[in-house]
Design goal:
Shape: globular
Order of helices and strands: EEEEEEEEEEEEEEEE
Strand order of the largest sheet: 1-2-3-4
Oligomer: single chain
Structural class: mainly beta
Largest sheet: 4 strands, antiparallel
Strand content: 35-45%
Length: 193
């Protein structure tokens, strides 16, 4: 059956069992989504609305909160069933003078190198899930702030305002971009695989 609030996803990722999990910035629910039927079910409730999600290789679910006010986003780590295993503020933790902090992100994913990457305000960040953002990675050309997906070969996909772009994370070179027939906004570049 369709769970309440099952529309308006802002990000999705796939767990080690092949199930799609999704979050939306207007709800604190993490959903299991059946990509064949479009139906979803509540997996667990988070402490606050979430706008980005990534599943770690060990099955842990990491999310970035929508932040009750701009710049107050938190990174949460959940067990696959939902209890919070840890959290860290993403504000005031970068230590990068003149660059600022990762104040929000709609897209996070693990690369094949095991690094958790976050796209925030057209900048790519590496995040240490125990202490917050650590390294700002310039990307060229800069791309938007939608959901991201990184495959096992190190290709990062992002959708922003209906344009799917692909970058190689080694060197951050642009592979290609294309406008999608339907504007998916920032939903899920998983669709572009």
């Amino acid at each position: 059956t369709q769970a309440p609030g099952c529309r308006g996803y802002s990000a999705a990722d796939v767990d080690p069992n092949g199930r799609v999990l999704a979050v939306g910035s207007t709800t604190s629910i993490v959903f299991d989504v059946d990509v064949h039927t479009g139906l979803c079910a509540e997996r667990f409730a988070a402490p606050e609305p979430m706008q980005a999600i990534a599943v770690a290789p060990d099955g842990a679910v990491l999310t970035i909160s929508a932040g009750k006010s701009f710049g107050r986003a938190r990174l949460y780590r959940f067990s696959p069933a939902g209890p919070v295993l840890g959290q860290v503020s993403l504000f005031g933790t970068s230590g990068l003078t003149g660059i600022g902090d990762l104040t929000s992100s709609n897209g996070i994913d693990f690369g094949p190198d095991g690094v958790l990457y976050a796209l925030g305000l057209a900048s790519m960040w590496e995040i240490d899930p125990t202490s917050g953002p650590a390294v700002l990675r310039p990307v060229s050309p800069a791309f938007g702030s939608g959901d991201i997906d990184i495959d096992s070969s190190g290709v990062l996909r992002s959708i922003d305002f209906g344009e799917l772009t692909r970058h190689q994370i080694a060197g951050w070179s642009l592979i290609d971009s294309r406008v999608l027939e339907q504007n998916h906004f920032g939903f899920s570049p998983l669709l572009g695989r």
